[in-house]
Every structure is written in structure tokens, then in C-alpha cells.
Amino acid sequence: MTATAPEHVPVAVIGAGPTGLTAATLLARHGVPTLVLERHRAPYPLPRAVHLDDEVHRILQAVGIHETFSEITRPARGMRLLDGSHRVLAEFLRDNPCGRHGFPQANMFDQPELEQLLRDNLTNHPRVTLRGGIEVTAVTAPPHSGAPVKVSFRDEDTGVSHTLLADAVLGCDGANSLVRASIGSRMQDLATAHQWLVVDIRCRRPLPAWDGVHQICDPQRAATYMRVGEDRYRWEFRLRAGEQPQELTDRKRLLELIAPWTPGISEDELHVLRTASYTFRAQVADRWRKGRIFLLGDAAHLTPPFIGQGMGSGLRDAHNLAWKLARVLTGRANEVLLNTYQVERRRHARQLIRTAVNIGVLMTGGGTGTALARNAVLPAIARLPGASGLVLSAVSPPLRPGPLVSSRRRLGHPRPGTLCPQPLIPGSDGSQRPLDDLLGEDFALLTAAPLSPALHALVRALDVRVIHLHDPRRPEPGTGGADLGADPGTTALVHWMGTAGAVLLRPDRVVLATAARPRLSRTCGDDLAAAVTAWAPMLCSRGRAAGGVITAN
């Protein structure tokens, strides 16, 4: 009897949390069939992550759930820093409800609800298959490059073990990652770990507390409070040395801890959803890839919660890797392109982790003397002009120069490695649409000047979608002056471009390179095309069709 050949899939994603589902959906949108293997049949029901910023909300737009996510999220008003007696040391408010990426800068939510949205969204992406009740038992790298990865798993319903082959495997299987162990990767500590108690409570009546994030800057009992949803609240308390979580989870003791936020609320109205002790770690894996086995999310990095970037970093991993892997698997790019994943994401994640550690130390570290100094300095900082914008602004650093980020920084140009903003732009039918909806799934070029022949050739090679922007600073023929009636979104985008004549964007909306405005000639882009041509063998294959060209007026 002939043995049945193992199932073969283009991509296997291990883990159906937000990172795994995001990666699978993005791959599907790039045309790559993906199989997701997950032990749980439904989203894990207890709250975990509760915050993401506008950059990560934009990734949810790329996935296609930004509108439904907006219905379950609550924008955070700002942040208060308080001392151990809950006296306000500083208050930082968000003046603009919408950030430069088209969404609120701070979004509070319940992770199980987000995971359900991501699962429901799979019905729109038939290239993704989700299998629950599956325990992955081994991931085995091939003996030579080009061969598929072997994934061994057990069906929890039948108890039968199976094997499948995958052209690529994405390890999105959390902090205790089996995939990480399979490639011989180890976590590196970036700071001392601390144990915290996390408390999630539901209360039908709004708590009589300021409706923003509260950070208790007390080295004796550092704590964080935030309203997550209409009736859900989160507290985090740092445990003291030698203190055990069970000492604080007795209901009487727990109510004492949250009492400063619940005056006038009866005990019966406070329904504890979860208490759990967590060790907040600052770690990054030393290796994120072996061949076509990749680590994403908590499998690759763990971030302390002070800047709310833990889950968001995992979605950034997915957004960075998906388009690169899709281009390689569909024969549109060289395998070398995949080398940029660890280079770009490990540096970025490491920097965010260090930022979180440093902010945590500034807000809660030290002893009595440090606390007294902090109590004296923070009120003065809060009174400085622009302090709120600086404190509450996005903490995500730009990607460093490399194969996919130009090292050439020009005065007045957008910085390569940063994300482009996302204003509302009029489409071909005149309706206002978020910029990303016009950019499509692949490379895009924003230009305020005609393209040179060399740049046209690059557009064809990379299958770039071109967005022509009318520069309101340049008068139309016969008008005698600037176009004062120009669309505000287009105006904002041209203003962001500064003195650049064109900006080349990667599929993840990162600025790859810029071109100078034309001077002697009427076209722009020879300089940009020359810079990118050196990377062309990695980015594209020959004979690609020309990209689409659309115009924003």
C-alpha cells in the first residue's frame, strides 16, 4: 500500500493570536495561501493586551478590520502621573483626537474582542485556513536550503499525530515558543524582570476616576490604572520584594488596593474578571530566523508595559515580514530580501524595549530620595509648552539605514525609515479616502512632479502604484497664484514631502528613498532610480508589468 504524501502548504503559521492572524491575513492579501495551527478553538477569553497606537491601528486597516475595531475601542484621553498618595504630579492631555496616521494615538480595547474580529475577518480571505485543536509538537528545519520545513502536530480530538511540509513557517507561538527552541534561539535579558499583579474588573457604573491612564510613581507600590472599555477597567500593581501574589488577591485586600479609584461604588458592583501575576520581562531573541523559519511577536521579544507596545510590536513584525515573504514565495524577489527582516525588526524592537525600561525607571524607580526629586520635577515639566505632545507622541523609532532604507538623508525631505502620514485624499471619484486605500498592497510612489524615464523604468520593474499630487504651492497655469482651494489632505501630504519631488514607499508604508525636485529638467527621479537600482535584484524579478498610475487633485 502506497503511503500518503504529507500535506504541503506555502506558509504555516504557528499560533492564532493577534500576530499570527495578522501575518496570515496580510500574506493572503498578497496572494499567498496560509495555514494557521492553534491549540485553542476560540480566542482565549481573558483580557491581556489593552492598548495599541495609531501606527498599529493602521496595520489593522491593512488587514481590513479598522472600522469594526474602531467600534470596540476607546481612545485614551491622556495620562496622569500621581504620587503614592494619589496627588496629581503632572497631567498630559491629547488635544487632537486623531493622529497623523488617521486614527487615535492611543486605543484601549479588550484583546479577546480583537482576536474575534481577526478570526471573523478570515471569511473574507479564503486563502487562510485556521485549524483549532492542534498541538504543534515539532518544527524541523530542512537539511539544505530550498527544501520545505517539516511541522509535526497532534490533533487533540483524535489524538492522531500528523506531519505537514511548509515552504515557510512563522513562529507566532508566544513567550514559551516551541519554534524559537527549534531554531536554537535564546532570549537575551535587557533589564531586570519585575513581578506585577494584573487585575481586570467589570463595573456597570462608570468609576468616579479621571478618564485617562493613571501612573502611580511610587517606588513602594508602583501601579497603573486605565479604563479599557465602557464597563472594563485594568489595574497593574508591582509586587514588592518577597511579596507573593496571593497576599494581594484576597478580595478584601484587592478592594483596598483599588479603593482610591472606586469611592461610592459598592463591593457588589465590582466583578473581578481576572487576577494574574506576570513577570514583566525585557527580552529579545538573539536569532529571529533560520532559513525560512521565522519568529514573530512574543516568540521574538518581550516588552515591559510602560509604553503599551508589547502586542503592537508583534503586529509590526507581521507587517514587515508579510510583503517580503510574499514577494519571495511568488517569485517576484530574491531570497536575500528575507535577510532584512531580522535586521530591521530586531533593532526596532530592541529600541522600543529599552525605551519602555527607561520610562519605567523614570516613573517608578529609585528610593525615597528619587521619589522626592521626581515629585518636584514632574510638575515643572508638565507646565512646559508642548510637553503633552512630546510625552504622548508616538515612541516608535525610524528604521535604520540598510538595504531597504536609503542612507541618504536630505534637508527638507522625509526621513527614510519613517512611516508616511495618512491623511484623507480624494480618489478618482472625488470621495475622501484614507491614503492607504489608494496606495494598494505593494510599492507606491508619491510625486509632485513628472517622472524621469529612469524613474518610469523603476515603476515598471517594481510594479509601483504612482500617486500624482498637485502641489498647492505651485500655481496652475493662468491662476496667477497658489491654489487656495486645494484639498487639505493633499496639501498636508505635499507639505510633508517638503522639498522632495517624489517619495518611494514600501508596501508597509515606510519611506524607502526620496527624489529631489526638478530644477533644470522638468522631470524628477533620476537620483532615486539610481539609488534603488542597486537593490533591484533583491526587490524584483525581470519583466514585471508597469504599476498603475492614478492622480489625486
Structure description:
The chain is α+β, with helices and mostly antiparallel strands and 553 residues long. The protein has 16 helices and 28 strands. Strands 1, 2, 8, 9, 10, 11, 19 and 20 form an eight-stranded mixed sheet that branches. It has a seven-stranded mixed sheet with strand order 6-5-14-15-16-13-17. Helix 13 crosses helix 15. The C terminus is likely disordered.
**Ends distance:** 67 Å
Helix-strand category: alpha+beta
Count, helices: 16
Number of strands: 28
Gyration radius, in Å: 25 Å
Report the β-strand fraction as a percent range.
25-35%
Unreliable runs? 476-485, 542-553
Indicate the mean pLDDT: 90
Mass-distribution shape: globular
Q: What's the helical proportion of residues?
A: 25-40%
Oligomeric organization of the protein chains: single chain
Short description:
This protein has 553 residues and is of the alpha+beta class.
List its traits.
eight-stranded mixed beta sheet; globular; 29% helix; 16 helices; alpha+beta; 25% strand; 553 residues
Q: How is the secondary structure organized here?
A:
Elements lengths: L6 E8 L3 H12 L4 E4 L13 E3 H10 L2 H7 L1 E2 L2 E5 L5 E6 L12 E3 L2 H11 L6 E4 L2 E7 L8 E7 L5 E11 L6 H5 L4 E3 L4 E9 L10 E4 L6 E5 L4 E7 L7 H4 L1 H8 L12 E10 L2 E3 L3 E2 L2 E3 L5 E2 L7 H20 L9 H26 L3 H15 L4 H6 L31 E3 L5 E3 H5 L4 E4 L5 H10 L2 E5 L18 H10 L2 E6 L5 E6 L9 H8 L2 H4 L9 E4 L1
Helix pairs in contact: 1-4, 1-8, 8-9, 13-15
